[in-house]
Design brief:
The protein has five helices and 17 strands. The protein is an alpha+beta fold.
Length: 336
């Protein structure tokens, strides 16, 4: 008789091609007074579960996941912690869109027409999502993000392969280094993904070595998550194309929700995007998010904005993952 030491149930979805593995059963009780404390506990005590679900052979180098938790704040419906190949995220826009789709489509929340409101306690802050619901199917999801702002402008770094690169460090739920692909002689195209990964990895390392990053209101948000590389639009109907290289050389297949939020903030604060003007951002595989700046705000000493990002997700499967007591790879591996 087979003996299992772990059983985990998930729902797998994708947002614009980017996966999200949602853990709905099998997560242990997670202590902590807030989401950041809960995330820290998981890092220290149960990182084996992240590795089990994200690494090969159950996942892959570009897998992404989410732990659904009870809410922390009075107005939230759920807590959420996002996981990836390197560890844990501060926020994830494509994840919020996929969660909205799954929770409404599969009846995990009380559904209202024409939209259902779902609120999340995420490490970066409180996130409000509105999910289209016509009584039969869940449609597009729009989320109101945490305040976004430019942390540092015109940051110049030297890279081994591409020479000098200039960009802005922007917070859109996570910190990113925003650069244009033209500087490296590239475009955001699938056939150039290896060069884009190299550019993203080199610039991320260079910026981390040069700039100390700490969110002005939440010291626990203090990591450069990745590099976002934009170029002229590669698909019809988009204002630009971009790709996010994050974590350990992971490639976002979606336009990146927090990254799209940060891009709108960057353009608005540089007087290149108007209030309530829609920006359509395309991913490296051609999927699209739309975003608009809805109001100005302040984040400590920084000028900031509130954005709303809209996208679509699709459910792929429901799964039960088990771990045999004789499995030689309980935390998996990466082979690239």
């Amino acid at each position: 008789m087979l003996s299992y030491t772990r059983t985990v149930q998930t729902i797998d979805a994708h947002t614009g091609g980017e996966p999200l593995r949602i853990i709905v059963s099998g997560l242990p009780p997670v202590p902590g007074g807030n989401i950041l404390e809960k995330r820290d506990w998981l890092k220290q005590h149960r990182d084996d579960l992240r590795q089990f679900l994200i690494n090969e052979p159950r996942g892959h180098a570009d897998m992404y996941g989410a732990y659904l938790l009870p809410p922390i704040t009075p107005n939230a419906d759920f807590g959420v912690i996002f996981i990836h190949n390197e560890g844990y995220s501060d926020m994830c826009g494509h994840g919020i869109i996929a969660l909205g789709k799954v929770l409404v489509e599969m009846g995990y929340v009380e559904r209202t027409e024409p939209t259902t409101r779902i609120c999340f306690d995420a490490p970066a802050g409180f996130i409000e999502a509105r999910v289209e619901w016509d009584g039969v199917r869940a449609g597009k999801v729009t989320f109101k993000n945490v305040p976004a702002f430019i942390y540092a402008r015109d940051v110049v770094v030297e890279t081994p392969s591409f020479g000098q690169i200039t960009g802005d460090i922007v917070f859109g739920g996570a910190f990113y280094y925003y650069i244009n692909a033209d500087q490296a002689g590239l475009s955001v195209k699938p056939e150039q993904v290896r060069q884009l990964i190299q550019l993203g990895a080199e610039t991320k390392a260079a910026v981390k070595a040069k700039v100390s990053i700490v969110h002005p209101l939440e010291p626990g948000l203090n990591t450069l998550y990745g590099t976002i590389i934009d170029s002229a639009p590669q698909v019809v109907g988009a204002d630009q194309s971009n790709v996010c290289i994050f974590a350990d050389r992971e490639v976002d297949r979606s336009p990146t929700g927090t990254g799209t939020s940060g891009r709108a903030a960057q353009l608005f604060l540089r007087d290149r995007l108007a209030l309530n003007q829609d920006l359509v951002n395309a991913s490296i595989v051609g999927s699209k998010f739309s975003v608009r700046v809805t109001e100005s705000t302040r984040v400590g000493a920084f000028d900031g904005v509130i954005t709303e990002v809209t996208g679509s997700a699709h459910i792929m499967s429901t799964n039960q993952w088990v771990l045999e007591d004789t499995d030689p790879f309980p935390t998996g591996f990466f082979l690239r």
